[in-house]
Amino acid sequence: MTSHRRAGWTRRSVAARAAALGTAALGTAVLGAASCRSALAAQGSGLASHAARTGRLFGTAVRSPDLTYNAGTRDEVLREASLLVPEYEMKWEILAKSPGSYDFGGGDRLAAFAERHGLDLRGHTLVWHLALPSWLPRQLDAREAKRLMEEHVTAVASHYAGRVQSWDVVNEAIDPQASDGMRTSLWMQALGPDYIPLAFAAAARADPKAKLYYNDYDLECDTPDQDVRRAKTLEILTKLRRDGVPIHGLGIQGHLQAGRWPYDAGKFARFLRAVSALDLDILITEMDVSDRLLPAPEAERDATVAGLAGDVLRTFLAEPRATGVLTWGLSDRQTWLNDLPTHRRTDNLPQRALPLDRNGRPKPLWTAMAQAFDAATPMR
Ligand code: XIL
Fold it and tell me: What is residue 15's predicted lDDT score, i.e. its pLDDT?
């Protein structure tokens, strides 16, 4: 999903979406008091039950307003998922409207919902080049950058300590076009690549029990750029492990694009094995399948989307250190892929990128995911 980065969608899009979804209006609203079905999601008939057959997780990104005001979404989540990750409630832009002043309300409502229904909760994301608060200077010297980054990681990771099972500590540090393979983010410019171990060390101090992940995108398919991304990812992970930095896993975002790039199962499998050889877990953290390049007929789109996802997940779930799959939303109602000109279809038809259709009914993508989970290699 490189195009939206080039398109430079900015913190405004995060805040705008949050406002549009009425986060502020949430006030003291309590998330819906749906029945406690989801604690049984892994024993039910949803995707979490298919994942659980080999001890794996299935989860989804959610927005707290959807869980509060949309009974359909609440029911879909409770039926399908055993883990939640906030689409935006734990991003710096949303948490800290002014320096040192945090509003954890949205994330706390998600945590309360997860705890009430026996769901795991995942944190996303502590250090990123996007969704930064408007008050944060975009140029910092090393001392200020280290202080502000460590204070933020400490404030957020300690607030959620004991409630979040894992964190995307650093998100999207790689730029395959850069000579050193590193994105020239605010953090990279101020601190160099050492911002990554500094972020992980701060997160580990704040929450010694959470599993800490490096998270990035475009790691699945067979292109020269993605070859560079995979090599740079392994270089980063190898150094972190060699230096004894507290890291537990790699997050592969899984924003797939049907009809865009070739897929080479052997190449992806070798990458997964190399990550596993570093004694790291691997999680698909944000899966969806863009159909923007496919012809309009829905049945054709659904089949192609399901085919690509099935191929990638069969490879992924053959890896014993693959711990689970999270989608970036459950129903096509929720996908972010309709939000940006660089993602939405040129015919403006709504994307069919997620396991459930706009009415919450399973699509061929749901079936492909369930079958991939059922055929998965047992975890190690
Ligand atoms: C996206 C959200 O889905 C959008 O609603 C928001 O406007 C921008 O951020 N990779 C990530 C996620 O790590 O945080 C991004 O989420 C999607 C790409």
Answer: 52
